[in-house]
Amino acid sequence: MDPEEYVEEVLAVVERIPPGRAMSYGAIADYLADRSGRSSARLVGSIMAKHGGSVPWHRVVAANGRVVPGHEHEALSRHIGEATPLKNGRVDLSRAAWWPEDD
Questions:
Q1: What pLDDT, in 10s, does the model give residues 54-101?
Q2: What backbone torsions phi and psi does residue 97 show, to the nearest 5 degrees?
Q3: What are the backbone dihedrals phi and psi of residue 84, each rounded to the nearest 5 degrees, phi first?
Q4: DSSP 87
Q5: Which of 15, 43, 71, 102 is most buried, by the most CB atoms less than 10 A from its CB?
């Protein structure tokens, strides 16, 4: 998979995350690892920073549930609106985590 295809695949996964659910950067990287030969949460984060504006970017969080730095207010507002499980100002991934085969 070339770099452009990887960007498209990351964005396609993010588009599938249902309201009220979330995936970590690392989970997206792990999901795509077999097909892409890549497994980098940082690369997924870079892709989201550069290209994620047209997808539900707030549904991608750090492994500890922390929302996008610099956009915390907007992200948390969207999560509250979607009834995403939260705990201490973070997404509660123990309840909100989603994997593509779940849909």
A1: 999 999 999 999 999 899 999 999 999 999 999 999 999 999 999 998
A2: -60, 140
A3: -70, 135
A4: E
A5: 43
Q: From CA 31, how far away is CA 24, in angstroms rounded? A: 11
The reported pTM is 0.93
Q: What is the mean pLDDT of residues 1-16?
A: 95
Whether the predicted pLDDT of 28 surpasses 70: yes
Residue 23: count other Cβ atoms within 10 Å of its Cβ.
25
Please, are residues 67 and 5 in contact by the beta-carbon 8 Å criterion?
Answer: no
Domains in the chain, start-ordered, CATH in brackets? 3-95 (1.10.10.10)
Cβ atoms of residues 17 and 23 within 8 Å: yes
pLDDT at 103: 52
Residue 69: CB atoms within 10 Å: 8
Q: How close are the terminal C-alpha atoms of the chain, in Å?
A: 24
